[in-house]
Amino acid sequence: MDILTLSFIAGALILGIIAGFMLAGSKLNSTAKKEKENLIKEAEVRAEATKQEKILQAKEKFLQLKTEHDKTIQERNNQIAQIENKLKQKEGDLNKKIEDLNRKDKEAEAIKSQAAQQIEVYKQRHEEVEKGHRKQVEMLEKISGLKAEDAKVQLVESIKNEAKTQAMGYIKDIMDEAKISANKEAKKIVIQTIQRVATETAIENSISVFHIEGDETKGRIIGREGRNIRAIEAATGVEIIVDDTPDAITLSCFDSIRREICRLALHQLVTDGRIHPARIEEVVEKTKKMIEEEIIETGKRTCIDLGIHGLHPELIRMVGRMKYRSSYGQNLLQHSREVANLCGIMASEMGLNPKVAKRAGLLHDIGKVPEDEPELPHALLGMKLAEKYKEKPEVCNAIGAHHDEIEMTSLYSPIIQVCDAISGARPGARREISEQYMKRLKDLEALAMSYEGVEKTYAIQAGRELRVIVASDKVTDGRAEQLAFEISQRIQTEMTYPGQVKVTVIRETRATGFAK
Questions:
Q1: What is the rounded CA–CA span in Å between residue 290 and residue 302?
Q2: Could you identify which of 82, 96, 237, 320 might form a hypothetical disulfide with 299, taking C-beta atoms 3.0 to 4.6 angstroms apart as the criterion?
């Protein structure tokens, strides 16, 4: 075949293929249209079903909301009805009260009018009584020859003197009765408290004696050209007195802690045999640390012995420092322990907490042992320290009030004050300068001599009793009792003294006859 024929055949085949494809495409289009129509119908059916379903749901929701709304409206209506009923009831009560008030106002008006009438009657009667009284006074003045004012003054003076005498008698009876009851119990408590506490006598408070063996040891302590003794004094702050006293050296210092450090350091140096400035400084430092540990241990042991727990470590340290302090020659720690024991016993007798009383008694003088020494009375300083370390308010008040520098707010405060006086006033507890003792006796006698009718006065029993001898022609028995009371009150308010002072007024009448 030629090329033209082949081309014709190929073209015919291509046309046939194209016609087949076109026929197939038309068939597919018709099928797709049918499927599309079916899908549209199904979608319309489903949409209609969904629409009906949503409409039903919306109706159900509407009905539910309507029901709830009706219920809420009903509840509100019920509440409004209740409130209306309450308001009506209150309105009725108010109307009743208004009626009662109106009735009471009417009654008050009636009473007021009656009272006004009675007042008028009373005024008239009072004027009549005044007229009668004036007439009687005029008649009495004519009869007695005295004016009313003069008679009144005489009557007042006589009544005053009589009342004063009777009052002194009543005061004496009341004081005797009080002494029989209250004083008996107070003495019983105080005596039982004192008897149950062991006591110690006063100690020296400014010097210590260090015993040595021979003058050779003295020379070694002094050192070449005195360098050792100067080093010891510089390191400890204690004055070392080396004199002709055999086998003894005197250590002088008002700080007993420094004095004890010096004594222990000297003992260690003499025992060791090596005494030179470098060694002295080393031993003194070790001794200071040892004393500090001993102070803390002493404070802890004291608290354990007294049954006191929960004390702040700094307060425990201050309690330990009391061992090396003294007050009027009395060791401060022993004094504080004694006061604590006295307070515990006395608080038990009075039905109070003995642990709180012991705590306050032990801490009452901590204001005497601080290291910085501020310018405050020791009672107030001790109170501030106790407050700083979270002690109880009654403990702080007892510390601050035991010298009457603040007001007492609890029963523990007078107990601490009394026990402090008991511990300090017993014989041997504290030393007293003789000049002060003599001055107090003279002041007692001079105070009693200042009264009219007093002839002689004698202070006896170390100033614990004052005998007053009065003139029998100038002082009556009633005046003698009054004089004893007045002198005791002045001593109590104007003088400072330990314990109590008994005032005895002696009035005697002597009749003398001679047989010849």
A1: 18
A2: 320
Put residue 495 in one of left, alpha, beta given phi > 0 → left and psi -120 to 50 → alpha.
beta
Read off the tokens for 320. Answer: 């330990």
Q: Burial of 2 by CB count in 10 Å (0-12 exposed, 13-18 middle, 19+ buried)?
A: exposed
Strands 239-241 and 248-252: antiparallel
Cα–Cα distance, 470 to 509 (Å, whole number): 10
Provide the 3-class DSSP secondary structure of residue 458. strand
Q: What angle do CA 467, 473, 476 make, to 5 degrees?
A: 65
**Which helix H or strand E contains 326, and what residues bound it?**
strand 326-327
Question: For residue 330, what is the enclosing H or E element?
Answer: strand 330-331
DSSP state of 412: H
Q: Which residue has the higher pLDDT, 276 or 87?
A: 87
DSSP string, 177-206: HHIIIIIHHHHHHHHHHHHTS--------S
Report the C-alpha gap between 113 and 119 in whole angstroms: 10
Which amino acid is present at 257?
A: I
Euclidean distance between CA atoms 486 and 495, whole angstroms:
14
Q: What is the pLDDT, as a whole number, of residue 200?
A: 46
Helices (H), 145-183: 148-178
HSE-CB for 156 with a 13 A CA cutoff? 6
* pLDDT on residue 142: 72
The first and second tokens of residue 344, run together, are: 């515990």
CB 240 within 8 A of CB 289: no
Question: Rounded distance, CA 255 to CA 342, Å?
Answer: 28
252 pLDDT higher than 70: yes
Q: What backbone phi and psi angles, to 5 degrees, belong to 512? A: -120, 130
Q: What is d(CA 427, CA 113) in angstroms, rounded to the nearest whole number?
A: 80
